[in-house]
Design goal:
single chain, mainly beta, 4 helices, 22 strands, disordered N terminus
Length: about 325
């Protein structure tokens, strides 16, 4: 664990309390074998009842991993692979929206315990007459599809849409939280400028998920991007891939507001270099434990130091006081 330090940006500064402590990790392929192929671009994870449910942004189905991260766990495997096979057979006769949503896979996961429903997020799909919207796919407790609907929030960039998804219930009403990948929900240079983290709040409408509010993350947060969000017992965690860090704060029980919270760096190597450079999904396990999944590292020597940790699942301890 490193000593406390400060990370400063043009948008302000935020205290980086310490590094998260790695407890265990494994390559996803070592756990599930050949069930999903060799390319596992892990993008979202959900912990529930001792099991991890994982999605990849290149696969239109789910991966399940036992909580001990053992290759012998009976829970390990791929679920719904028949949907992927069916999608390939559909061809050009199907709608552009459906094909894009299915073939591209999912960005993140959420779960509604009251309705026993799972939700999977497609980052951005084209909508008529032009533009993009994120789409949420609904599944029942057994992960059988129950339809999909778009999120009422315009996206200017197909590659910089909504990256994180979470379910929150208040006074008997359920809401989906959609985390924007770029600062101020934009792409390009502006989206990489820290200080503009946003989470859009949605409630189910007649034909879509209607946006009802926006959660503004602290302006002091030094993240260049945002990749996943998880809420548990009033505490909210937001992961950044580009900044290789996790922010932990508190979500107001009545208002869509958060406190300043604390930033925790993902562990570095013995020379202080980033090794968790493809971290994409996060989910609470308990009050002081989180699970993170990592995407596939891009090609090129510049990304070689990420390969030991890519396409993997990791369990971290949050230092006391978080």
């Amino acid at each position: 664990m490193t000593t406390a330090k400060k990370q400063k940006t043009k948008a302000g500064s935020a205290k980086v309390s310490a590094e998260l402590r790695l407890l265990k990790e494994a390559k996803i392929k070592d756990l599930i074998g050949d069930a999903a192929g060799d390319r596992l671009e892990a993008s979202g994870v959900l912990y529930r009842d001792g099991v991890f449910l994982v999605v990849c942004d290149n696969l239109p189905f789910f991966l399940r991993i036992g909580g001990e991260l053992s290759p012998k766990a009976p829970e390990n495997g791929a679920l719904g692979t028949e949907r992927g096979k069916a999608t390939k057979k559909k061809g050009k006769k199907d709608s552009q929206k459906e094909a894009a949503a299915e073939v591209e896979g999912y960005e993140d996961l959420a779960y509604d315990p009251s309705g026993e429903r799972h939700f999977a997020l497609s980052e951005a799909v084209p909508v008529a007459p032009e533009g993009f919207r994120a789409r949420v796919h609904e599944y029942d407790a057994r992960l059988r599809p129950r339809g999909s609907a778009t999120l009422d929030f315009a996206l200017s960039d197909a590659n910089k849409g909504l990256e994180g998804l979470e379910w929150v219930e208040r006074d008997g009403t359920g809401y989906l939280l959609g985390l924007c990948e770029g600062n101020r929900c934009t792409g390009g240079k502006e989206g990489r400028k820290p200080g503009g983290g946003r989470i859009q709040v949605f409630r189910r409408g007649a034909e879509q998920w209607d946006r009802t509010d926006t959660i503004r993350l602290p302006a002091s947060l030094p993240f260049e991007d945002y990749s996943s969000v998880s809420v548990r017992d009033g505490r909210i965690a937001v992961l950044s891939q580009a900044s290789s860090a996790l922010w932990v704060g508190r979500l107001s029980p009545r208002k869509w507001q958060v406190d300043e919270g604390t930033v925790y760096a993902l562990p570095t190597d013995d020379k202080g270099r980033t090794v968790y450079g493809t971290a994409e999904g996060v989910s609470w396990i308990s009050r002081d434990h989180v699970v993170v999944v990592s995407d596939r590292a891009k090609k090129g020597r510049a990304n070689d130091h990420y390969r030991a940790k890519d396409q993997s699942i990791h369990v971290f301890l949050i230092p006391s006081g978080g």
